[in-house]
Amino acid sequence: MLDKGLLLKISELDYNKIKHIEDSQLSNFSMTVNSFINDFPAQDEIVKTALKAKDYVALTMSLTLICDMLRQIYAEKLAEKCTVYFSKIGNVRYEDLQNFIIDFLKTVSALSIDLQMIEYQEHVPAKVPKQTPGIVQNPENKNTVLVVDDVSLFLMTTQKILQDAGYNVTCVNNGMAALNYLKTNQPILFILDIDMPEMNGYELAQKIIESGQNAPIIFLTGNAKQSSVVKAIEAGASDFILKPIEKNQLLERISKYIQPEFIK
Question: Which of 29, 62, 178, 206 has a 20 to 30 Å separation from 14 between CA atoms?
Fold first, then answer.
């Protein structure tokens, strides 16, 4: 059963409605949330396909279904935002519509992942001490965010965003380089891409934990599929960042665990 206290921390959900869910109603609400988690990926693909084909009928139908699902889990402001915008389909530029829908789907994907984190973390045996959001007081010589991704452009972009925000950052482009770095360093946070050649993010997370590191691990993912989220949680995930990354989302996720003033 979902933890109501954790649900209240998800900003996309209506705080007052979640607060007033009776304990006796939580089981039914959990079932509704599960339906949303299971059904959203398929609708996400339908919307993307319809958008690419400029099939506005299919696009409107699928977006309407997503909005209905959001209302059922009390993400009503997000549903209303979408409803107002796609009611204007045909009267806005395609590029503007495309940008809005991509951003909307990404927000809904992040919501789905947040809900899955609440649901599955309680049932997955912890490989490291459970990392809950909260500012980490950082000891000396443990002051680096380690980012691992095989895409150089992503590493450069991420490094600039984090450094501009005041974080100390080290970037490497493969799992072996990350493990070599850990021989003499102890980062305060890990950001790992899942899809990497030779050693993927799941495998790297396991080796990081086996090496004695216990800092939070944030995975980079391109989707909110249940199987991917469960596998990442089993590998030791504390959180997720959706790709392609956006500055605000990246900083918001990291700030749940550390703040720049604590890593100087």
Answer: 62
Helices 152-164 and 247-255 cross at an angle (nearest 10°) of: 60
Gap between the Cα atoms of 143 and 170, Å rounded = 10
Is position 38 within any domain? yes
Per the domain annotation, does 139 fall within a domain? no
Q: Write the pLDDT tens digit of every residue in 103-128.
A: 899 999 999 999 998 888 665 555 54
Query: b/e for 190-217, b at 16 or more Cβ within 10 A?
Result: bbbbbebeebbbbebbeebeeeebebbb
Q: Are residues 159 and 100 in the same domain?
A: no
SS3 content of the chain, % helix, strand, coil (to 5): 55, 10, 35
User: Domain range spanning residue 72?
Assistant: 4-121
Q: What is the pTM of this model?
A: 0.82
